[in-house]
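To: structure subgroup
Subject: Chain for Friday's discussion

All,

I'm putting the inputs and outputs inline so they're searchable in the archive.
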Amino acid sequence: MPLGNRSQYLAAGVSKREAWSWAMFDFANSGYTTVVITAIFNAYFVGVVTNNQDWGTFAWTASLAVSYALIIVAAPLVGAYADAHAAKKRLLLLSTVGCVSFTALLYLVGPGDLWLAILLIVLTNFFFGCGENLIAAFLPELAQSRALGKVSGWGWSLGYIGGLVSLGASLAYVTWAQERGMRADQFVPVTMLITAGIFAVACIPTFLFLKERAVPQPHLLAQSAGREALARLRGTLHQVREFRDLLRFLACLVFYQAGVQTVITLAAIYAQQVMHFDTADTMFLVLVVNVTASAGAFAFGSFQDRIGHIPTIALTLFGWLLMVLLAWSAESRSMFWLAANVAGVCLGASQSAGRALVGYFSPSARRAEFFGLWGLAVKLSSIVGPVTYGVVSWISNGDHRLAMLITGVYFVIGLAILMTIDIKRGRDAALESDAVPASAV
């Protein structure tokens, strides 16, 4: 990861090694989303666990929806607790152990093990989502405010490389297994162990070198975790007018991320059900898309700091609309490959840009809480988008093309809301909040 001149981008006291160790968590956890959610286990769930039943896609999206609902409830509480106790790193370790452990247990899921698969997916995704919020909350401590986009882009870029490593290792094993005549129910479970192992090893630098710079807030420590979380959330809601641009962006996130999360969670299912890809074809497609996603995250991270957060996100939303139209109309594999790589570029760029803008709008004393709200918005979108797709495909007797086309509506709504956001007003609100003593919040 080329960090360049540290003084240009990183906050005072932050070393290149620490910035790299932070980005390595994106490298580590991306294997989970790539292998489990995007490329392998989702298609395995529909094709093997549910035996290609009409309700299989809906069952998959509903399982994820349950996990995201749990994260929505937990995220503000976890964020407030982390801020009050300066516990981001401790909670990050707990969430990592949970995600790695339950991902490894997916090895036990075979044909017909529907309820075991649902339970484990709910647990793995819950712990993953909690960790995603916590690692993001370190960003404003590591980067200068004018370079949030660039540093965020480093993380997302390295993350897609991590996804590529996990998927590449899994693809190598799947290819070997298929050459020996193994069935999907024999080789897919092993890829869960591969993914869990890489996650566990790759995140070690994060826990060795990333520093917890936050300090405990004594005026909150005497309260219970639940009370302190609710008190801080009430404070945020009380200041809602001061943070209206942040709230508008969170609403924008809910809609455009509904489309993004649909593509992430259903890409392999669409490829196999509509374009008739087999497991190896799908894995290779996602592997290549990870390369374009990494390039998109890195390139747009620098681009974002030059042209601004809003224009960058708007550009990616137009790209997502193009991707939806290409995938919907694709009759040949080459057209679908084009759509997939457009999605890759937009995926890396929109994820990086969104995280950076939340950091730009966040008061320094409430970073974990505000990134908890960011996580809440993303998880809400992860319910709305995929479940919409699952319902449409179910009631239309498996018309995945129609479900994909309807997904494009979410990008249009997100773009409309984005145009109402005032970037300067949103940043000024965060700075004004920092100037108010914590006891007055």
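Points worth raising on Friday:
The mean pLDDT is 85.
Residues 16-210+226-434 form a domain with the Growth Hormone; Chain: A; fold (CATH 1.20.1250.20).

D.
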